[in-house]
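A further point concerns the way the authors explain their paired sequence and structure data. For illustration, here is how one protein appears when written out as sequence plus structure tokens:
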Amino acid sequence: MRNADSGCTLSPRRAELTSFDRAYNVALCARRQTGMRQFIVATGNPFQPIRTSCLAPGNDEIVLALVA
């Protein structure tokens, strides 16, 4: 996985852990456990390019999906 903004290459394991599929699975589990909607957002951070949160994303983040 390559992040165009940072110009760095992630290790295969980090690329797996920071994939959209992984974030989506985490969001599904969190939704089932908490009952709260989960945002999957692109952060722009090369070490955590995608994250899952129950909070609305910040101004510098892009919503990729909403698990409601």
